[in-house]
Amino acid sequence: MGRAPFPGGAPAYRRDMPAPSLPTAPGFWRSPLRGPRFTAVLGLVLLAGITVLFVTGLVSYAAYNPDLSPVNDKTPDKGVLGFYLFAWPTNPHWLYRLTQGVHVTLGITLVPVLLAKLWSVVPKLFALPPARSLAHALERISLLLLVGGGLFEFVTGVLNIQLDYVFPGSFYPLHFYGAWVFFAAFVAHAVLKIPAAVRNVRRLRDEETDDLVPPDPDQPTVSRRGALWFVGGGSLLLFATTVGQGFDGLRRTALLAPHGGADPGTGPNGFQINKTAAYAGIDAAETGEDAWRLVVTGRSGTVRLSRAELARLPLHSSALPIACVEGWSTSDQWWRGVRLRDLAALVGYDDDPPDAFVESLQRHGAFRRAALRANQVADPRSLLALYVNGEDLSADHGYPARVIVPAAPGVLNTKWVARMTFGDL
């Protein structure tokens, strides 16, 4: 026997009919797992998870202080989308480590949920007629933007995490604008669907007349509850093989993270790095004691300091982590060097340190120059570090000197520093 006709005039499908060959036919999609309750559970999980992803993504962008200097802003045409930007704080010192770790780990963890959700609603993408009413047309448009935007954001994010970014153009603007398009569609879809999703979750069973329920389903090989457990298990597996990238003791378990293997080398400099001295094009001849000088410029003029002269200035220590946009981070490392505020004082800023512009010897890669806010310069834990964990910096960690600032993204902790300019940027 055939089932009752579907809403919108779609004909009932009967077993004695030929198997439909087009995805627009109601009987083409026959998985017994599809149904409004299954879809609603996945949708509510994504509602919470994607909201956290969006907020932590915006926070990550703010952490770069993009409205401070053009060199910090990889999305200069953001316009009104930058309405929320704020001066990034230095407390707590692990702030960026937490927010970006959550962003990346949660994004990877949600991949099975997103794929299962898209699979569960794929029949709706092929449903005819394309629009039965204005409300239905808006729902279909939001669904297309949601699906396309979701896939784009997750794919570009995963590629960037794996340091294998292949899309044309910079990751930063593509991911930023894509996030706003995706989240706008997500909010519109959620507003339309949350009441129905809550009702569907509370139901004991699916309504047979719902357009997600196949008219003539195949025999089930697993229950819907079993399918949800399978999706949840996949998410837990991805979580377990990613989260360790932010914890030294668990780093070997982060099999899917780009910095998930053993720490590079041993000893005081044996902790994670992003770019090596070789990759950055650092010439060892430029960093030798006889060749390298730090040029510090400010209100009262310019000072040039060798590494030996820096080491004779008052030195201070800070226990701070390195946290990268790809989601990996280190535990607190023990840095020792000259406070940035003391360097500012050398060039005329004794009481109120200003913003700073930092330039590196680096020849390749992004963020060869970076700007720091006055609050970052003034923090007593912000250093031009000469040593880490009791020894000289290694070449890969920024010898002869590098910046280290609490709560700042790793790219703002400039390595191989050549020049610092204090004052108006």
Describe this structure in words.
Keywords: Membrane, Transmembrane, Transmembrane helix. InterPro entries: Mopterin_OxRdtase_euk (IPR008335), OxRdtase_Mopterin-bd_dom (IPR000572), OxRdtase_Mopterin-bd_sf (IPR036374). This is Molybdopterin-dependent oxidoreductase. It comes from Streptomyces vulcanius. Pfam families: Oxidored_molyb. With 425 residues, this protein is of the alpha+beta class. It folds into 2 domains: 234 residues, no CATH class; 146 residues, Sulfite Oxidase, Chain A, domain 2 (Alpha-Beta Complex), CATH 3.90.420. Helices cover 37% and strands 11% of the residues. It contains 10 helices and 10 strands. The strands form 2 sheets. The chain has a 5-stranded mixed sheet. Strands 3, 4, 7, 8 and 9 form a 5-stranded antiparallel sheet that branches. The chain is elongated, with a radius of gyration of 27 Å.
Rg calculated over all Cα atoms: 27 Å
Low-pLDDT residue spans: 1-13
Assign a percent range to the helix content.
25-40%
Order of helices and strands: HHHHHHHEEHEEHEEHEEEE
Q: Name the overall outline.
A: elongated
Mean pLDDT figure: 87
Beta-strand residue fraction: 5-15%
Q: Please provide the count of β strands.
A: 10
Number of helices: 10
State the major sheet: 5 strands, mixed
What is the terminal-to-terminal distance?
A: 76 Å
What is the SS-derived class?
alpha+beta
Q: How are the strands of the largest sheet arranged?
A: 2-1-10-5-6
